[in-house]
Write a structure and sequence with these properties.
Shape of chain B: globular
CATH topology of chain B: Rieske Iron-sulfur Protein
Number of strands of chain B: 10
CATH architecture of chain B: 3-layer Sandwich
Helix content of chain B: under 10%
Order of helices and strands of chain B: EEEEEEEEEE
Low-confidence stretches of chain B: none
Number of domains of chain B: 1
CATH architecture of the largest domain in chain A: 3-Layer(bba) Sandwich
Number of strands of chain A: 38
Oligomer: heterodimer
CATH superfamily of the largest domain in chain A: FAD/NAD(P)-binding domain
Largest interface: A-B, 37 and 40 residues
Number of helices of chain A: 25
Shape of chain A: globular
CATH class of the largest domain in chain A: Alpha Beta
CATH topology of the largest domain in chain A: FAD/NAD(P)-binding domain
Largest sheet of chain B: 4 strands, antiparallel
Distance between the termini of chain B: 10 Å
Number of helices of chain B: 0
Strand content of chain A: 15-25%
Mean pLDDT of chain A: 89
Strand order of the largest sheet of chain B: 2-3-4-8
Low-confidence stretches of chain A: 409-413
Strand order of the largest sheet of chain A: 3-2-1-7-19
Radius of gyration of chain B: 13 Å
CATH class of chain B: Mainly Beta
Structural class of chain B: mainly beta
Strand content of chain B: 35-45%
C-alpha cells in the first residue's frame, strides 16, 4: 500500500522513523515530500547554527533511511494540491496516488501587521534559509556601518529569545520587544520573567516589554548604509541593522483547507485523538494539527502525534492524550523550566515560591487548594530539580513543597518517590516502570544502555540525571572498582600513589589491593607511575606492567609484527629526514603509510628488528613518536601564516612547541592535538582532545573533541588568549585530566563527566584551570614543569643500554632466528601480512 | 620419556614477564611468575593464530596464575592452559622445571 507524507520537518521525519520501526513487514511504501531543499533538521537547536554547528550537524535523518526503494524522499518539492476523491497528491513535478496520507506541514511564522514589515532587512526565523539570509544581511551591514551593530527581535517568547541569541552570536546587540508585560509570557510568571529579564540584560540584550512596534522605516544614510528605524508604541526609537519577526507561529493548513478538510476556528487541521482528519484516509500531525481544539507549537507533542499516527497505520489503537507542554531550556545561557499549570490557572491553586535575586534563582511550585497535589511550576536560574519535579505533576506531593525547592537538602523528590506509571522521558513518553523493566530485563548498568533499549533520554536529554538515579534504584550495582585486584578507581589510585609517594606496583597492590594484578590494573599503574616520573618505563618492576606495545615501544599488529612511528612534530619534516624514513622502510622491507596525524607509519617490523631500525632513525635525529602509548600522539597543524594567504598566526611553530612540550607524557588515554592558523580550521583542531585555532588577537582553545567511535566537537574553553596563557592552560588541562580521569577515558568523555547535578562542566573546568578554584594550579604547573625537565627519548635510552636491549629478541634461545610464522605477500608494490589460519 | 630440554638460564626470564623459546620446531612461551615458578604454554594465540602469547601480561585471577593475550586480551590459566573467557578454547601446556639454574621444557 502507498503512504504519502507531506512535510519533512522534525515531526514528519519522526513519523517516518516510527512507522519504519513498527511496520516490520513493510506493508507501506512511503513517499515523502519536503518543501525545503534540506531534509529534516533540528529546528529546536536552530541558533546553534551560528555557534559552530553546520547544517549537517543539525541533520536528523537516520543513515540509510531513504536508501531503500520502499522509502523515497523528494526534497525541494512542495505538494500543491490534494485530490481526496482520486486519492492523489500533486507537486510541480508529479502526481502520486496514496492509500493513506499524512500531513506534517508544520507552521509558518506569524508576522504582525506592522507598517514597514516588507522592507529589506526584515526577516523571519524559521528555517536554515532564513538564518542564511540573516547572516548575509549582518555581513553586508558589517561592510557598511561603523560602530555597534544592533538588531531588533519582535517577540519575547521562546522563539524570540532564541532569535536574540542567534543575533548575539552574529555580533549584534539585540533588542527584544514583547507585547506582554514579561518575557516568555506563556511559560513563566511575572517574578520568573523579571529574573530572566535581569539575567539576559546583563548579556547586552535590551528588553522592552508591555509595548509593540508601531512602525519600521528606512533610515536615510546616503548611498553606503542601510539601516532601519523602528518606533515603539511607547515612543522609543531604535536604530537597527535588521529586524527579526519571531512573534509565534501559525499552523500551515492551506493545503488541507483547499482539499475541503475540516480546520479549527483559529486554524489547524482538525483531527481526533488518533490523529485522523475529517477524511479517514488522511492524518495530520505536529504543528499543523488541531487536536482537542488545541494547536501545539512544541516538538514533544508533535513527536507524540507521530507515534500515534504510525501506530494507527499498522492497525494499532494508540491515542493522543492532552500533551505535556513542559519545557526546560537554556535561553541565552539562562536555565528556564516550566511545567504543568505553571501560571496557576487552576481554580483555588496555591503557589509556593522561592525568590533569591542574589543567587539568581527563582522557583515556584503550584499546588492544589489542599496543598496535596503538585499542579505545575516554574524554575529560572537553576533547573536541576526539573527532572524530578515534572513527573510528579498531578500526583500527591511527597513532602513539604517549600522544602522541595529549597536550595539544598529538603524533602526527597528523587525518582524513588515516583509511581511506576509516571512519565520520566516526556519526549518519548517513557514511564519509570518501562525503564526499570528494561534495566532488570537487559541487566543495564549505564545510561547508554537505557537510551538504546527505551529511547528515554534521547530527546531533549533533560531526564538523563533521573535515568542515572533509576539505574541506581534498579538495584544494578554500578561498581567503580578498577578490577578484581583494586577496589579503587584509576583517579583514586593516582591520588594514593601521588600522596604516599609509592614507587612500585608491588608496594601499591600490597598496601591497597590483592593478588598479583592483571591486564587491566597493571597498565593503569604503569601509566600512573610514568605520569609521576618514575624513570624509564622498561626499568625494574615497571617492565612487567607494560602492555606489549609499551614493552616493545612499538604497536603490535595482527600477525605479531610491530609498527614504527617516529615523531614528526607538527607534521614538519625536512627532505633529508624524509629520505631516511624511505631508506629505512626500503632496507627493512616495511609497509609504509601516511597517518592521520601527519606522520609516517612503518609496518611489519619483527621484534628483533626494532633496535636496528631505531638505531638508524635515532642517528638521523628522530625520536619515539609514542604511537604505542596512552600518551600525547601528535599536534597536527596547517602551514599557518608563514605560507598561507589566509593565516593569521604561525600555527606550525606553536604546534611544534606544544608537541615537544608534551611528548612522552603518559595519560589515561591517548591525547591528540591540533593547531589551525585561522578560522578555516584546516588542522581540524575541533576534533582533537586539545584544539587551538588562531584569531586576529591570539588563540582560541578548544578541549574535549574526539574523532573515533563517538565523534564530538571540542568545547571552546578560552578565547583570544596570548601564547603564554594558552600554554599554561593546556598544561593544567592535561595534568588535571591525568589526575582525575578514569581508565581509558578520553578527554571528551571526561569533560562530559564534569557536568552533573546541574553543574556546567565547562564552567567548572574553566574555574579550576583559570581561576584556580580548587587551589591546585601550582601543583599542576609544577607537575608539568617536572615532566618537561625530565623528558628523555625512550628509544635513545633503550639503544644505550644493553640490558634493556636484551628483550628485543625473537627467541630467548635463538635471538636472531626470525619467527618462521611471519610471512608477507606483495600488494601494490609493498608487503602485506599473510594471515595465519585459525581453526574455529 | 622425560624429554626435558634446557632452553635458557632462569635469570634470562624477567619476573612476571614472558619470553618465547624455540623447542625443536615448536614455539613455546615461558613465564616466570611472582612466586618464582616457570610456566610453559604454546606461543600460538588460538584466537588469531599469531605466535604472540609470550608477550602478554601475567597476573592472577583468584588464586590462579594467568596470562592475557596481547592482541585481544583473552585470559588463560597458566597452570591448565584453559581460556577463562571462553570455555571452548585452551592452549597446550608443557612441563617446565628449573635444573642448575637452567629452565628445562618438555615440549616434544
Amino acid at each position: 500500500m502507498d503512504l504519502v507524507v507531506v512535510g519533512n520537518g522534525m515531526v514528519g521525519q519522526r513519523f517516518v522513523e516510527a512507522l519504519r520501526e513498527r511496520d516490520r513487514e513493510k506493508q507501506w511504501r512511503v513517499t515523502v515530500f519536503g518543501e525545503e531543499p534540506r531534509r529534516a533538521y533540528d529546528r529546536v537547536a536552530l541558533s546553534s547554527y551560528f555557534d559552530g554547528a553546520s547544517a549537517d550537524d543539525l541533520d536528523l535523518v537516520a543513515p540509510g533511511l531513504y536508501d531503500s526503494p520502499d522509502c523515497t524522499l523528494y526534497l525541494d518539492e512542495a505538494v500543491t494540491a490534494i485530490d481526496r476523491a482520486a486519492r492523489t497528491v500533486t507537486t510541480g513535478r508529479r502526481t502520486v496516488r496514496y492509500d493513506a496520507l499524512v500531513l506534517a506541514t508544520g507552521s509558518y511564522p506569524f508576522v504582525p501587521p506592522v507598517p514597514g514589515r516588507e522592507l529589506p532587512g526584515c526577516f523571519v526565523y524559521r528555517t536554515l534559509d532564513d538564518l542564511d539570509a540573516v547572516r548575509a544581511a549582518v555581513r553586508t551591514a558589517a561592510d557598511h556601518s561603523r560602530g555597534r551593530r544592533a538588531g531588533l527581535v519582535i517577540g519575547g517568547g521562546l522563539l524570540g529569545l532564541e532569535a536574540a541569541r542567534a543575533l548575539r552570536l552574529l555580533g549584534l546587540s539585540p533588542h527584544v520587544v514583547e507585547l506582554a508585560p514579561r518575557l516568555m509570557p506563556l511559560q513563566v510568571d511575572e517574578a520568573g520573567g523579571g529574573l530572566l529579564r535581569d539575567m539576559i540584560e546583563e548579556l547586552d540584550v535590551t528588553v522592552h516589554t508591555g509595548t509593540s512596534v508601531a512602525g519600521i522605516q528606512e533610515a536615510d544614510l546616503g548611498p553606503t548604509g542601510h539601516r532601519l528605524l523602528a518606533t515603539l508604541a511607547s515612543g522609543v526609537e531604535l536604530d537597527v541593522d535588521l529586524v527579526v519577526f519571531s512573534a509565534g507561529v501559525r499552523p500551515r493548513d492551506q493545503l488541507a483547507r483547499e482539499a475541503g478538510l475540516a480546520v479549527g476556528e483559529r486554524g489547524g487541521i482538525v483531527v481526533d485523538d488518533g490523529c485522523v482528519t475529517s477524511d479517514e484516509h488522511v492524518f495530520a500531525i505536529g504543528e499543523c494539527a488541531c487536536v482537542g481544539g488545541r494547536v501545539y507549537g512544541l516538538v514533544a507533542p508533535g513527536y507524540a502525534m507521530a507515534e500515534v499516527a504510525a501506530d494507527r497505520l499498522v492497525g494499532g489503537r494508540a491515542t493522543f492524550v492532552a500533551a505535556d507542554t513542559s519545557t526546560k531550556l537554556k535561553l541565552l545561557g539562562v536555565d528556564v523550566a516550566s511545567f504543568g499549570d505553571a501560571l496557576a490557572a487552576t481554580p483555588g491553586a496555591l503557589a509556593v515560591t522561592l525568590h533569591n535575586p542574589v543567587a539568581r534563582r527563582y522557583a515556584k511550585l503550584v499546588v492544589s487548594d489542599d496543598a496535596r497535589t503538585l499542579l505545575g511550576g516554574v524554575l529560572v536560574g537553576d533547573t536541576s530539580r526539573y527532572a524530578s519535579l515534572r513527573p510528579l505533576v498531578g500526583r500527591p506531593l511527597p513532602g513539604d513543597p517549600a522544602a522541595m525547592i529549597a536550595p539544598s537538602g529538603g524533602a526527597e523528590s528523587g525518582p524513588g518517590s515516583l509511581p511506576p506509571d509516571a512519565q520520566v522521558c516526556s519526549c518519548h513518553a517513557v514511564t519509570k516502570g518501562t525503564i526499570l523493566d528494561a534495566i532488570a530485563e537487559h541487566g543495564l548498568s549505564d545510561v547508554a544502555g537505557v537510551k538504546s533499549c527505551t529511547r528515554a533520554g534521547t530527546g531533549c536529554g533533560s531526564c538523563v540525571p533521573l535515568l542515572k538515579s533509576l539505574l541506581a534504584e534498579g538495584g544494578v550495582p554500578v561498581s567503580s572498582a578498577l578490577c578484581e585486584h583494586f577496589d579503587q578507581t584509576r583517579a583514586q589510585l593516582f591520588e594514593i600513589v601521588r600522596r604516599e609517594g609509592i614507587g612500585t606496583f608491588t608496594e601499591l597492590i600490597g598496601a591497597h589491593g590483592r593478588g598479583r594484578g592483571c591486564d587491566i590494573c597493571k597498565p593503569v599503574v604503569a601509566s600512573i607511575l610514568a605520569s609521576l616520573d618514575h624513570g624509564h618505563i622498561l626499568d625494574g618492576e615497571q617492565a612487567a606492567l607494560q602492555d606489549t606495545n609499551d614493552h616493545f615501544l612499538a604497536n603490535i599488529q595482527r600477525n605479531g609484527t610491530y609498527s614504527v612511528v617516529p615523531r614528526i612534530p607538527g607534521g614538519e619534516v625536512t627532505p633529508d629526514k624524509l629520505i631516511v624514513l624511505g631508506e629505512v622502510a626500503r632496507d627493512f622491507g616495511l609497509y609504509t603509510k601516511i597517518t592521520g596525524g601527519q606522520r609516517i607509519d612503518l609496518l611489519g617490523a619483527r621484534v628483533e628488528q626494532l633496535p636496528a631500525i631505531w638505531r638508524r632513525l635515532v642517528d638521523a635525529g628522530f625520536e619515539s613518536g609514542h604511537a604505542y602509548g596512552k600518551a600525547l600522539r601528535t599536534v597536527k597543524s596547517c602551514v599557518g601564516s608563514t605560507w598561507c594567504r589566509y593565516g593569521v598566526q604561525d600555527s606550525v611553530s606553536l604546534a611544534i612547541e606544544l608537541e615537544l612540550r608534551y611528548r612522552g607524557i603518559r595519560s589515561p588515554h591517548k591525547i591528540k592535538a591540533g593547531v589551525s592558523g585561522c578560522a578555516r580550521e584546516c588542522a581540524e583542531a575541533q576534533s582533537k582532545d586539545i584544539g587551538v585555532i588562531a584569531t586576529e588577537h591570539g588563540w582560541n582553545l578548544y578541549v574535549g573533541g574526539n574523532g573515533g567511535f563517538r565523534p564530538r566537537h571540542a568545547d571552546l574553553l578560552l578565547s583570544d588568549v596570548d601564547t603564554a596563557t594558552l600554554v599554561t592552560t593546556i598544561d593544567r588541562f592535561i595534568m588535571f585530566y591525568i589526575r582525575t580521569a578514569d581508565r581509558l577515558q578520553r578527554t571528551s568523555a571526561w569533560v562530559e563527566s564534569l557536568s552533573r547535578d546541574g553543574v556546567d562542566g565547562l564552567a567548572y573546568l574553566r574555574s579550576v584551570l583559570v581561576d584556580d578554584s580548587l587551589g591546585i594550579a601550582a601543583e599542576l604547573d609544577a607537575a608539568m614543569a617536572r615532566h618537561v625537565d625530565c623528558y628523555t627519548d625512550e628509544w635513545a635510552e633503550v639503544l644505550a643500554d644493553p640490558v634493556r636491549l636484551r628483550r628485543f629478541v625473537s627467541f630467548v634461545n635463538a635471538p636472531d632466528t626470525p619467527d618462521p610464522s611471519i610471512t608477507f605477500a606483495a600488494e601494490r608494490g609493498q608487503p602485506r601480512p599473510v594471515l595465519l589460519e585459525v581453526a574455529r | 620419556m622425560s624429554g626435558f630440554r634446557p632452553v635458557c638460564r632462569y635469570e634470562d626470564l624477567l619476573p612476571e614477564r614472558g619470553a618465547a623459546a624455540l623447542v625443536g620446531a615448536r614455539q613455546v612461551a615461558l613465564f616466570r611468575t611472582f612466586d618464582g615458578i616457570v610456566h610453559a604454554v604454546d606461543n600460538r594465540d588460538p584466537f588469531t593464530g599469531a605466535f604472540v602469547l609470550s608477550r602478554g601480561i601475567v597476573g592472577t585471577r583468584g588464586d590462579r596464575p594467568t596470562l592475557a593475550s596481547p592482541l585481544h586480551k583473552q585470559v588463560f590459566d597458566l597452570g591448565t592452559g584453559a581460556c577463562l573467557d571462553d570455555p571452548e578454547v585452551s592452549v597446550p601446556v608443557y612441563p617446565a622445571r628449573i635444573r642448575d639454574g637452567m629452565v628445562e621444557v618438555a615440549a616434544e
